[in-house]
């Protein structure tokens, strides 16, 4: 006797979005059901207008069509904005095109993966709100009013570009490298930054869902090598790299040195807080310990928060924070009314700050103290559950000898001259770790404490990446 298959895989419903492998657990059928569940949730509230966008992945057109069909089956009115970066979908919602949005995107993940980011009343959905969609599908609580549904198309790209160019003015011409990584920002980034007055040197600015040049994740240093080479070869002021759907930014200075987002946050805080004294600046647990004092020195109030772009934005709204960001590259700057994480917009705001001085960006960033730090290390597990269980076991039995242990999101062990972090990722079946210290010797000593703990508890049979 065959075992009945579930309507839809529960594994799709993650902490910040829906995510899966195309044609495996993420199919047109499953996305149609999710679209219908989102539409049913809206119809329960007496609402029915929603905007739908998609990134440049090969599976995105079919999945976007399935989402639209599901929304229409519930009787929703859909505005299809087509291929756009995720922040342009957010812009469409904030601009009033519709109060709700559905974005088909695999973000920074490999080409065979895809997903859905969901915006309800301008707020990205997360945790239990996403789980409720799964529960609704499994209970069969779905509206069936296809005759009431309709779809129209709209071009929102020009309005987005116009808004950014109206907001941002560079006092001098900067020579910049742009690495769109064949992601959705390739649609408009090159022209946008030319319109802002930059001399642009483009890399991989053609949308290609195969991502033939490098993975669409600029937080991995290997994926920045082409940009670093370009910046040095052309003696550019700065290089900017975006992830696959454009909501993350990583930069490199004119020497090719990586400017991690926590250092970008410090510079933006120093620029913004004099006009916004006493406002909160939020940052996630993966950011440098130097942020706290830098924010205070600039006249702001620092606030550490849980990692996750949806949770960051929620924290910022609740506390009226003017600026917030994650080490992963999600940055939100709200002083001019933009309420969402947008790699291109933040890149433009960063250029605006840098253009106010005649000094090279590398010299400007050199004023910001920098210790010894690592990128994120990832320890892979067979499943999200296995990674979570390993993290829980470690937290229960850790011997990290920390002066202060922060358990807001995983474990951040702080010492007099550095810190180490371990947490279970919500976007991959991994434990992610990061370290920072004042000297290379102390950095290695802190890493050694974490290594010893992992080996003592036998958390993984795999070789550690640090």
UniProtKB/TrEMBL annotation:
It comes from the Bacteria. Residues 12-137, 159-256, 261-367 form the Alpha-D-phosphohexomutase alpha/beta/alpha domain. This is phosphomannomutase. GO terms for molecular function: magnesium ion binding; phosphomannomutase activity. The lineage of its organism: Bacteria, Pseudomonadati, Pseudomonadota, Gammaproteobacteria, Thiotrichales. Its EC number is 5.4.2.8. Residues 394-450 form the Alpha-D-phosphohexomutase C-terminal domain. GO terms for biological process: carbohydrate metabolic process. Belongs to the phosphohexose mutase family. It catalyses: alpha-D-mannose 1-phosphate = D-mannose 6-phosphate. The keyword Phosphoprotein applies. Keywords: Isomerase, Magnesium, Metal-binding, Phosphoprotein. The keyword NADP does not apply. InterPro entries: A-D-PHexomutase_a/b/a-I, A-D-PHexomutase_a/b/a-I/II/III, A-D-PHexomutase_a/b/a-II, A-D-PHexomutase_a/b/a-III, A-D-PHexomutase_C, A-D-PHexomutase_C_sf, A-D-PHexomutase_CS, Alpha-D-phosphohexomutase_SF. Its cofactor is Mg(2+). Pathway: Nucleotide-sugar biosynthesis; GDP-alpha-D-mannose biosynthesis; alpha-D-mannose 1-phosphate from D-fructose 6-phosphate: step 2/2. Signal peptide: none annotated.
